[in-house]
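Problem: given the chain below (195 residues), write out its structure.
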Amino acid sequence: MERIITTHNASQSQPETATRAVGKRTLALTALLTAAVLTYALDLGSKLVAVSQLEGQEPVGIAGHVLTLQVFRNSGAAFSRGQAFTAVFTAIAVAVVVVITRAARRLQSLPWAVALGLLLGGTLGNLTDRIFRAPAVFRGHVVDFISVEHFAVFNLADSGIVCGGALMVLMSIRGTSLDDSAPQDRQGRSILSPR
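Solution.
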C-alpha cells in the first residue's frame, strides 16, 4: 500500500514540477521582453528628443558642469574608443543579440531575465543607431548626450548595458543560474548550450 501511494505521489509531482517550470520560464521570458522593450523605447525616445532639441546647441547644465546634456556622435565604443572599428562593433552587437536569444531557451531565473533584458534593449538601441544613422548602414554613429564631467558621454542604451552587465556579474558571483538549477545540475553547461 505504501508503494502505491509513493508511486502515485511521484507521478503527480512530475506534472506539477513541469507546470511550475513552464510558469517560471513564462514569467522570466515576460520579464526579459519587458525590460528589453522598456530600455529600447526609452533609449530611442530620448535620442530622438536629444537630436531634435539639443544638437547644435550649447550644453544644458543639469547639475552645474558636473552633469550636462549635449549631443555627440560616437563612431567608436564606450568612451569613444576604437573609432575605426564601427563595423566590428556592429557585428559584436549582433552577436550579443544572438547569444541572448539562445540563452532565453533555458531562462527561468527572474534576475537573469531582467539583466539580459537590459543588455538586449541597450544593445538593440545602439545597434539601431549603427544601422540607421549617418554616415552609412552598419557604420552609423551612436547618439550620446548625457555628459558627466571627468567621466564619459553616454546614452540610456549604455546605461542599460552597464546595469545589465553589473547584474550578470553579481548573479554569477552569487551562483544564480539562468535556469535556477542547483550547482551540481549545471556542471559542463554554458550559456549557449541547449537544454
